[in-house]
Amino acid sequence: MERANTKEKIILTLFLMIIIMSQGIRTILNNLINTSMFNYHIIPIILILITVFIRRNKLNAKNMIFILGIIGLLIINFMTNVYTFNQFFRSIVSFIVPLFILLIDYEDIDEKYIMSRVTKILNIFINITFIIQVYISIKYGKSGGIVGHSLTVGWYYVIFISLNCIYYKYFGVKNDILILKDIGIALLGTVLATGRISTITVLILGFIYAINCCKSKFLIYFIMPIAIIYFLNTPLVKEQIWEKFIYALAWGDITNGRLLGIREMQFYGLYPKFLEGGGLGYSNYITTYLFSTTNFENPILMFAFDYGILTVIFLLIIIFINPLIEFIKGKKFLIMINFLLVLLVPFTYNGLSESVGLFIVLIFIIYIFLIVNNYILKEKYRI
Question: What is the extent of the structural domain holding 232?
Answer without folding.
Answer: 114-252
